[in-house]
Amino acid sequence: MRFFVLLFILFCAIGVHGQEVLFEGHVYDHKTKEPIPYVNLSFLNTLKGTSTDEKGHFFIDIPTPFLDKQIHISSLGYKDTIVVAKNIYKMKRFDMVEESYELDEVVVSQSLGNSDVLNPISSYSLTSGFSSSSTPWVLALYFPNIGAQKKYLEKVTVFFQKNSEFNRPTAKFRLRIYDVDPETKKPKTDILRKSMVLESNVEEDFVSIDLGALNMKIPQEGIYVGVEWLFVPYNWYKNTLIHPLTNKKVIEDRFAPTFGAVYNKNQNYKAMVYGMGEWTDFKVRSKDNTKNLIPAISVKLSKE
């Protein structure tokens, strides 16, 4: 089974020596003082990060010099924040400010005619997978809005690749739906506007979620559908591999799930990855250079 580790450097030795410290604390809502689950924390310019659990608690061992580094803190519905790690280390907590949105008018569809499935996938077409081992990422796939007819997001299906190293029955991840920045063509605002944490199941190779009740109209520029890794203890497992340079056995931390991947010739389906505070193009080409490896995500659109 072949995995593509979703990192730009597959094997990165961070040249920092010295004593490690336990970096832990809680993340709260600034207004309600309630803990915030599944907040992602990433040390900028490193491949180190973690997430809060269901009770808003996080912990990770870091080299002492990392306390002087900046951390990018992000969670759906809250303003992204960058803060020096030592400030959180001292206080053992961080309060996030809720992000305010101008809510669009809800469009209630009276009658939906036909529907389209974009990037249709079968389990047999899965060729590889995306996993994450160092810091939380969001992997997003672009779906264009073709034609003048009004369209609404009805269903999203995410496929997974089997992983023999992960022995729990389920793994948690978060679904993200973004509109598109008209200038950069990158994901812009998460239009889902609610934290939707889903679970993969070892007995199934996909999960589908019906979003029809939300009446989400597809913007003219299209949408990005993203899957976000959560670095919580429940998703953690150990992976053993052989280092390509030293040929020695290496045991590394990994986090489930392993999202499925397929090769696709359609250039409209563009993949991007969000990590350490910025969006970057993600491109892996087939051997014959005719296809791109993209996340195995399908969407069903309803039309008026």
| Biggest sheet statistics | 7 strands, antiparallel
Number of helices: 1
Radius of gyration: 20 Å
Q: Bin the helical content.
A: under 10%
Total DSSP E strands: 24
Separation of the first and last Cα atoms: 43 Å
**What percentage of amino acids are in beta strands?**
over 45%
- The residue ranges in which pLDDT falls below 50 over 5 or more consecutive positions are 1-17, 103-112
Helix and strand sequence: EEEEEEEHEEEEEEEEEEEEEEEEE
| SS class | mainly beta
Shape: globular
Calculate the mean pLDDT score and round it.
87
Descriptive keywords:
seven-stranded antiparallel beta sheet; mainly beta
Show the helix and strand layout.
Blueprint: E1 4-5, E2 20-29, E3 40-43, E4 48-51, E5 57-63, E6 70-74, E7 81-84, H1 85-91, E8 93-96, E9 115-118, E10 128-132, E11 138-143, E12 151-159, E13 170-180, E14 187-190, E15 196-201, E16 206-210, E17 216-217, E18 223-229, E19 236-242, E20 249-264, E21 271-275, E22 278-281, E23 292-295, E24 297-303
Parallel strand pairs: 1-10, 2-8
Antiparallel strand pairs: 2-5, 3-4, 3-6, 6-7, 9-24, 10-20, 11-18, 11-21, 12-16, 12-17, 12-24, 13-14, 13-15, 13-18, 19-20, 20-23, 21-22
What does the model show?
By secondary structure, the chain is mainly β. Helices cover 2% and strands 47% of the residues. It has one helix and 24 strands. The protein has one helix at 85-91; strands spanning 4-5, 20-29, 40-43, 48-51, 57-63, 70-74, 81-84, 93-96, 115-118, 128-132, 138-143, 151-159, 170-180, 187-190, 196-201, 206-210, 216-217, 223-229, 236-242, 249-264, 271-275, 278-281, 292-295, 297-303. Strands 11, 13, 14, 15, 18, 21 and 22 form a seven-stranded antiparallel β-sheet that branches. Strands 1, 10, 19, 20 and 23 form a five-stranded mixed β-sheet that branches.
